[in-house]
Structure formats: C-alpha cells, structure tokens
Design brief:
The protein has 97 residues and is of the alpha+beta class. The chain is built from 2 helices and 5 strands; from the N terminus they run βββαββα.
Amino acid sequence: MRLTREVPAHVETLELRWLSRDFLVMSPAVRRTREKHKMAAITCQWCGHAFADGEMVALAAIPMAINATLCQACCASAEAADAAPLQQPTDGGPDEA
C-alpha cells in the first residue's frame, strides 16, 4: 500500500507495510490522556486532518519509522492505490527527456 501526493517540486510517496482501518475512536478520554502525558494532539500524519470526537483513527506501519495515524479518507486512498497500478513520479529528473 502507498499514499502519493504532488507537491510543487516532486511527487511524495509513503510506503505502508500494513494498515489498521479501525484502530481508535477519538474521544475526550483520549485527549485527556495525551494532555496528561504532554503529548501532541492526534492528527492525520499525511494530510494534517484534526480528528473530532467520535471519529475513527486508522494506524499504519511505515518502514524504518514510527507508526502513523491516518484519517479514513487517506486510509481509503491508500487502499485504492494498492488496487490501482503504481504511479510514476514526475519530478523532472534525469530520466525524463
């Protein structure tokens, strides 16, 4: 699975080893626990979406990094990209003529 997005200079790709669509339901208790331990609020690490109470948080494993939290829209995009052919980067590198 992978997530891909275009930024001004290149295409950014995030490879995922696995994806858990129903990891955690955001709630006031989760927020209090994170504040108690001086941890930042949970947001989607791909698009920056701030989770509302009652919203489902997905969890993904990224090779050579910590696990990433994802929103359901990014989770669906990763699953759709897994079923679709891989997108080739268009960064204007030496292979393009």
